[in-house]
Model the fold of this input.
Amino acid sequence: MSKPVRVRFAPSPTGPLHMGGVRTALYNYLFAKKYNGTFIIRIEDTDQTRFVPGAQEYIMDALKWSGIMPTEGPGLGGDFGPYVQSERKAMYQPYAEQLVHSDKAYYAFDTAEELEAMREQAKQMGMPNWQYNVVTRSSLKNSLTLPSSEVEKLLSEGAPYVIRMKMPRNQDVRFHDLIRGWVVVNTNNLDDKVLFKSDGMPTYHLANVVDDFTMKISHVIRGEEWLPSAPLHVMLYDAYGWEAPEFAHLPLLLRPDGNGKLSKRDGDRLGFPVFPTDWTTSEGELYSGYREKGYFKDAFINMLALLGWNPGTIQELFSLDELVEAFSLDRVSKAGAKFDPDKTRWFQQQYLRQQPMVDLVSSLDTLSEGKYTHHQLSVVCELMKERATFVSDMLIDGIYLLEKPLQWDKETISKKWKPETTGLIQDWKSIMENLQSFDASSIEEAFKNFLADRQLGTGAVLLPFRLTITGVGAGPGMFDISAFLGKEEVLERMTEGLGKISSLLHE
Ligand code: GLU
Done:
């Protein structure tokens, strides 16, 4: 790559960062790392009406948790600051005026009411999509239609105005997108977008282009929803005589059924988070996040990386470094990527299995507030890890390893408990009582002999045995569980369990 790679993630602080936004940040991060470039964050807050307090802090915190922090941005330093657009406010107006002077843009004085009336009138005449454009501008109140003396008068009187792009008639705007190939749009389909607003702020379009240029951005990697804005941006670069950055518009994230864009409401409605971390709205509504649900950040990032990109091999598990190594924009697909909650859980399970035992034990210790010994928690990990998705599952599902059961699975008991079962369990109990050594293989051997003597199948005794000891119908190996609990505890639980089960059966 000829120019130094400088990429930016440019969120607007209008709310929490959706996981699609994290993916955009991730691809920018991977691309920057891959080419020894710089990853920048710029906060695009020119639309002050949509500003949400706390959103910027949320975004920074979410990137930090995800492990994909930029190195330039607000609070991070860098030579191209400030990195918050409202703090750059003063620099945009001269750029906007430069375009008016070079006849690429013009002042428009129409009030919001006047424009609304035009829109309404057009609607009445069967044209619902009225636009300020190459055709309509000639009958509106702007510096192209008004005499220059009047324009000057209005400006000197401080009349409110906006600056609009003077979209040329019937020109093909062409640009190359690294994911989509050549994109061609005719200017007849584009309106005269506002570049500079009456509140003295630039619009997204102007600020975005001026900042990308002045911050020396080499590649603009952003979501597909910005593709329709790209022709205008390309024209702005042209109008200034600046070389445009390379563009890459990422595919949308779709709902699991492929039906439409994944929205912030889908998550909690369908039972999965769409945000990296919890977000509570000012009305107190909670949107859940991956972090608080107990996902490992690496699992979250691994899953996101593969939503729209593939490595071209069957490898699915990637550390962040491996992603940097494998990533390339030409393996990003054009088509929308369907979010798959089951696959997301699968990633989490894989990462849970890879966790070092010491880390898991220490997490369990924190979760259980130091109530159990290191040995107890190590065994919980060993026995439950393969069956769990989240660290907390090991404690919840394996609680019988630490505490006597308080509940028994009535449904399984009524289905599986036969008239002869109680007698069999009592006999098996007496055999265990007489066992000299109580390690897993001795118990297993005794169990096998017991079955052989009685000519019984495993299921006839093993499941009822499990139910009496753990209260539930499934779990890790019963001989491991028994050895861990110890003879005394096992016998006690069997007596209690048999009592409990018999009363459940007679309810
Ligand atoms: N501020 C835009 C957003 O909120 C950024 C678009 C871009 O990256 O150019 O997503």
